[in-house]
Every structure is written in C-alpha cells, then in structure tokens.
Design the sequence.
C-alpha cells in the first residue's frame, strides 16, 4: 500500500462529515496532531442537522447499518459509544422497513431470519419463504467475500485484485457467486414475487444504478439493509457526529467550526499549509480532504474526466401534527411507498448524462418518522403535539436533466404530497409544514457533483479499484476521503473511507476487525 512519505506529525482534515471524523479519530489514536476544519457550525456533513423554529431534524442519511464501524472509530481513541458525557445509544429497528405497494399490500423487513421468513410466508407464501432463505444465504456469501478485501481495503491499482493472494481468493469467490452479473436478474431468478424482489434490489439506487444494471456484487448493500439490521441512535442520526466530534476533541484533537477552507498551498508535490476564509493558514505535514468530488478542483485536485454521477433526490424536512400522522395507513419509522412502475422509474431517474432524465411519473417514496422510535423527538406546541417528518423522492441529477429547480421545487413537492393523499396519507398536503427543501440545485450549491448527494455512480468503471483514488497521483501528502472515493456511497462506506485515508498516512494496513460484521441471527 502506498503511503504518505516523510513527516506526518501534523495533519489537517478538511470537512467534519463522517469520513472526516473517522479519519480524525484514527489519526489521533495513532499519535498524530490533528486539526479538523468544518465550514458549518456543527459536525456531520451529510449526516448533520437542520434547525427548525423549535426543533432539530437530521439533514441527510436516515438509514444506519453496521454501527460496529462507529464503535471501531471511537475505539481508536479509547472510547466506546456509551462512555462519553452523553452516551450514544443505538437501537435496532424491527422492522427495518415497512414497504407498501400499489395494490395496498404491505411487507415488513426484519433482520432476524426466522421473523423475515414468517413475514414472507404470510405475504407471499411458504414456497417464497424458502426462496428467501436461499437469497439471504447468497447475499451473505457475496458480502463476506467482498467486505474485507474490496470494501475495507486500499487499492493502489486494479492489479491488486490478482497481485495479493487474499484478494485473488476473494475475487474468485465473487466470480463463482456470479458477483459480476447483474443484481436485479440474479434476485429475480431466486424470488418469484416481484414485490419481494423490489425489497432486495431497490438499494442499488444507493449505488446510483438501476437494479437491472447494477453489478451483483452490490448485493452486499441489501444484505446490510435486510440481514444485518437497520439502526437508529437516540437523538437522531446527528447524534453520531456529535459523539465522534466530542471523542475527537477529548482525545486532544482540535475541531474548528464555522471555518471555510479556501485553498491549499503546495511546494512542489507537497501540501504545506491550508488556507481559510478568515485569512489564517495552518501548516501541515499531510492533508485529508473530504470535499465532494464535484468541488475538489479548487484545492488543486484534478478529478478524473468523464465521471458519471448518481441520481439525485428531492428531500423535504419539516413537521406534521401527530394526530394527523396517526391516521396514516402505515405507522413505521421507515416506510417505502412504492408506485406501480418499477423499471420505467429507474429509466427516468438514472438516465445517463444528456439522455433525457425526468421526474418519476409513478413515484416510489421514502417516508421517515423518527419519533415513532425515539419519543423524545416529538415537539409539543400550543396547538398540540407534532413530529419531525422527512420525505425523499429520487430524481435525476443535473447532468441527465438540467431542470429549473428554482421554479420547479415547490410545485413538484405539492404534486408528491397530492400523490400521497391519494394513497391514503390523509392531511399530508395541508398539514406538512416544510422548513427545509433540498433539490439538485441546493446539493450543487454545496459543491456536490451534478447536484447529487449520492456522488459518483457505482458503474463498473467507477467501482472498487476503478473508483477515483483516495491517494491521487498529483500530490505526495494529500489523501481523499468521502463517498466519491474508495469504497463508495453510504454511511458505512463513509466511515470506512475515513479509516482508509488515515491508513495512507499512518501506514496501518490491518483491518479493524478480523471478520466483517455478522448477520443478526
């Protein structure tokens, strides 16, 4: 593994998202003097918070898998999730998701294999329950073959896959498992109920692909979602970043909020200092840069040409009266409300650049109601109790559909709410108070490539060792972390990305755990 040569005593980490926080913790634990710079007034990045008039709400990711990776990062500085001044308590959701379909049928997703088999038997029949167990076993084998040697690892070259015996053995396993076929067709050959197949393939959207096009190796994502469990921390997802930030500073790290980084000064191939908007400059021996790949050029990084971005999303955050939400057809933390359309929906939102992407005509939507898990998130107001509520609608990015979101955002949200009204979510159009509305335009304003928070799509030429490198060739001491580099998009991969970046500086090569996190049951 290539590492930063020369002194690495003083490290500046740019960006206090999960990847930056993880990198800072691992570097501090390895004895480096670390300064972490964040332009916002709080840590978290895409797992941070928005403030409403009398409440806070998660601003991004709402699905947490592999919480063990948080434990690993905290352990680097001798902490556990529970040992801080405000313990981080993380609970498994059961069910992980509640899915509703156009015919009004529902399927709950459980991590426990027996509970899920019973649910499949109830909704799809006992024969499909047996097929579910076959699928679960296949997904688990893909995950085990992939995690340590392809996700939790640094690549210097695609040849690493055949150069090292363990990686070569893992590659052989993935080939035998059909990992380089297509996820959607593979799942469809095991399951016969199309509703159930959706629940094990929609996660391909996280990787920026339609299930019909995504490599089967991305079966690791539905395995994490459906077998390893979905979790939620008390206080919201934003509590993760708060805990990691506190552990970092308690271990001696310096966290500077409200600090915009404007550039990096180089002497030859080495970064020597990081400049901030307030006119200061911090000398450094190495830099971990977590800026989105859509905005790294201003730091001297030249991203690879021709990168394809993932689809984007419209996300509305606000509150709903609890008595209104209590009448809805589903009472769950996470509800996936599927439209009747499937393949055509992905054709619309996952179109290649300049291929005419468009808004979903029959939308599938994610509804998140965290107070159902954590009652401390309810908001009591003079007119009654309210709960935080988020609505996510996938949409094309600005390269495939350069829509006028300044004009379109509010009308499109009204359209989505009207669709939900017709599906039985009575009162949502009138009573959902939206305090924050994110669209591809707002994502782009934050520097995200093509206006998408899901960064670079995981097409083959942007996957694994072919993904943009975390140790770019232009510099000897600047390392990249975040969802645009290795290993990819998502909360677990962001945490791994920070660790892998830290390893480039410290020279650590061992994985944190001997085995990947295991199934729940």
Sequence:
């Amino acid at each position: 593994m290539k590492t930063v040569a020369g002194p690495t005593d003083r490290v500046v980490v740019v960006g206090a998202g999960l990847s930056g926080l993880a990198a800072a913790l691992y570097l501090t634990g390895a004895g480096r003097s670390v300064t972490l710079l964040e332009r916002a007034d709080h840590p978290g990045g895409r797992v941070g918070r928005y403030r409403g008039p009398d409440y806070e709400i998660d601003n991004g990711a709402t699905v947490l898998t592999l919480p063990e990776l948080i434990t690993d990062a905290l352990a680097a500085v001798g902490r556990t999730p529970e040992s801080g001044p405000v313990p981080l308590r993380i609970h498994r959701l059961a069910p992980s998701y509640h899915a509703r379909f156009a015919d009004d049928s529902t399927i709950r997703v459980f991590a426990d294999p027996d509970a899920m088999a019973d649910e499949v038997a109830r909704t799809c029949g006992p024969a499909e329950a047996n097929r579910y167990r076959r699928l679960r076993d296949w997904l688990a084998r893909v995950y085990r073959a992939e995690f340590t040697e392809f996700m939790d690892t640094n690549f210097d070259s695609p040849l690493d896959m055949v150069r090292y015996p363990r990686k070569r053995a893992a590659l052989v396993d993935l080939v035998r498992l059909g990992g380089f076929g297509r996820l959607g067709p593979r799942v469809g050959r095991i399951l016969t109920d199309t509703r159930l197949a959706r629940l094990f393939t929609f996660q391909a959207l996280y990787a920026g692909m339609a299930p019909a096009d995504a490599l089967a190796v991305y079966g690791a994502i539905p395995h994490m979602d459906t077998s390893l469990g979905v979790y939620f921390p008390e206080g919201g997802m934003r509590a993760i970043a708060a805990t990691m930030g506190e552990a970092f500073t308690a271990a001696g790290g310096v966290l500077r909020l409200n600090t915009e980084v404007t550039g990096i000064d180089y002497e030859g191939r080495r970064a020597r200092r990081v400049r901030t908007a307030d006119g200061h400059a911090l000398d450094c021996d190495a830099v971990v840069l977590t800026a989105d790949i859509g905005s790294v050029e201003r730091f001297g990084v030249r991203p690879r040409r021709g990168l394809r971005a993932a689809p984007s999303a419209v996300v509305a955050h606000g509150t709903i009266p609890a008595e209104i939400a209590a009448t809805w057809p589903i009472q769950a933390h996470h509800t996936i409300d599927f439209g009747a359309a499937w393949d055509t929906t992905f054709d619309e939102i996952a179109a290649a650049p300049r291929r005419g992407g468009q808004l979903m005509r029959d939308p599938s939507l994610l509804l998140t109601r965290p107070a159902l898990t954590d009652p401390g998130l309810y908001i009591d107001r003079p007119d009654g109790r309210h709960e935080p509520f988020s609505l996510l609608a996938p949409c094309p990015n600005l390269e495939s559909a350069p829509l006028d979101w300044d004009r379109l955002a509010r009308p499109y949200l009204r359209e989505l709410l009207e669709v939900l009204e017709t599906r039985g979510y009575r009162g949502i159009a009138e009573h959902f108070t939206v305090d924050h509305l994110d669209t591809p335009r707002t994502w782009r304003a934050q520097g995200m490539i093509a206006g998408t928070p899901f960064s670079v799509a995981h097409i083959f030429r942007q996957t694994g060792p072919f993904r943009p490198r975390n140790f770019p060739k232009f510099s000897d001491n600047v390392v990249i972390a975040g969802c645009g580099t290795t290993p990819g998009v998502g909360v677990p991969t962001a945490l791994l990305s920070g660790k892998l970046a830290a390893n480039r500086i410290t020279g650590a090569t061992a994985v944190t755990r001997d085995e990947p996190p295991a199934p729940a049951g």
Remarks:
- The first strand starts at residue 10 and ends at 14.
- Residues 39 and 173 are 43 Å apart (CA to CA).
